[in-house]
Design brief:
Strand 3 and strand 4 form a beta hairpin. The chain is of the alpha+beta class. The chain has one domain. It contains 6 helices and 4 strands.
């Protein structure tokens, strides 16, 4: 996935390096052992439209690139996106394609759909 941010093209890759970076920031610790929970913590936020998570995913998606935009450039890019919903959709679709994230994405999507179905039943 490529995004043009501030006039430069940046390749985003949501592979193992991306997951590793997320897990450095988001982890649980039990009996002195750290367990990465980055995907489990942040994907639900992305799926529900959290713009900070969107910006963070874009930034971390460039973690393995030689050329990387700054956090400020990404914030401005997200702030001024003409189609913010489309940007969310594009990132989510890319996460569904990458080997490091596609299984978890499928699980979260199924859970979200089940929860929406339960809410609709409860509203009736």
């Amino acid at each position: 996935m490529t995004l043009n941010i501030n006039g430069s093209d940046y390749e985003l890759h949501f592979g193992i390096g991306f997951v590793r970076e997320l897990d450095k920031k988001y982890f649980a610790q039990q009996a002195g052992i750290k367990f990465g929970i980055g995907i489990e913590t942040k994907v639900p936020m992305l799926l529900t439209g959290d713009v900070l998570t969107l910006a963070e995913f874009i930034y971390l998606g460039t973690s393995t690139s030689k050329k990387r935009p700054s956090v400020q450039e990404i914030d401005k890019f997200v702030d001024t996106a003409e189609d913010i919903e489309g940007l969310f959709d594009e990132v989510i679709e890319e996460l569904k394609k990458q080997n490091a994230t596609k299984i978890k994405m499928k699980e979260f999507q199924e859970r979200l759909e089940q929860e929406e179905m339960l809410l609709k039943k409860a509203e009736k």
